Amino acid sequence: MPRTKTRRKPYQPILRLPPLPPDEYEALRSHIGVHGVLMPILIDEHQQIIDGDHRKRIATEFGYDCPEVVHEGLTEDEKRTLARAMNLARRQLGREQKRQIIADQLIETPKRSSRWVGKMLGVSHPTVVSVRRELESSGKIYHCSSLESSDGRTQPARERKSHQGSTRC
To answer: Domain spanning 10-92: which CATH class is it, in words?
Structure first.
């Protein structure tokens, strides 16, 4: 009986992050063209790329093998948080790009404390607090009356005079 070829699901990034500037993309492309992909991409069990979308695309373009590490058992939230953290730590992002990544995390996990978000993304918690305040004042997230800390405990959030009565979390 003939065997049917199983078609692998195409690789997809877990989330879209700011693109590399053209000069950085070309530098990465040139490096991969000469040396191949030296740093494995990080994927989940469903071939969603957590880290390494540009490396994978360039390797595919050149027809090169692209080493990969499979990280199983993460929730969708954990995958997106990890993707943001890895890119914040490694990429040369501008101030507004970094703040947008922090904002995306806060919009996704508004009940998490600013210290937790800072720790997970590798940024200072005062920066997270600043982004949180901007989001709250613009109505993109609500001020939560309690927040979950990194150890899983729920603690009362600090009240702000301008937000009294607007808690929804």
So the answer is: alpha beta
- From first CA to last CA, the distance across the chain in angstroms is 59
Question: Which tens digit of pLDDT belongs to each residue from 82-104?
Answer: 999 998 888 778 899 999 999 99
* In contact, 102 and 121? CB cutoff 8 Å: yes
CA distance 109 to 89: 20
Dig out the tokens for 36 from the structure.
């191949």
Check: CB of residue 88 under 8 Å from CB of residue 122. Answer: yes
DSSP string, 119-148: HHHTS-HHHHHHHHHHHHHHTSSPPPSEEE
For residues 36 and 45, what is the distance between their CA atoms, to the nearest angstrom? 24
Task: Provide the residue ranges of all domains of the chain, joining segments of one domain with +.
Answer: 10-92, 94-159
Nearest of 121, 112, 118, 136 to residue 80 by alpha carbon: 121
Task: Look at the chain and count its residues.
Answer: 169
pLDDT in tens, 112-158: 999 999 999 999 999 999 999 999 999 999 988 888 877 778 888 77
Dihedrals phi, psi of 141, to nearest 5 degrees: -140, 160
Helices (H) and strands (E) in the chain, counts: 6, 6
Assigned CATH for 94-159: 1.10.10
